[in-house]
Amino acid sequence: MFEGLFQPLHLLVIAGIALLIFGPRKLPELGKGLGESIRGFKSAMAAKDETLSPKPQPNDERPNMNEQRRGTMY
User: pTM surpassing 0.70?
Assistant: First the structure.
């Protein structure tokens, strides 16, 4: 359905239309705002993932190597 939607020529046409609508002075501000909003969205998604599935803590129940050696002395 959306095959070939974001070809380089299409992106150039979209950028040209945006330049005509917003003008050369406003375009960098819009790009900065878009970048900040995408960054904020990604960080919010990462924070949500961390709260739903916390990373497992290392298991401290394994015996120490020195304790294992003491138990196997001949």
Answer: no
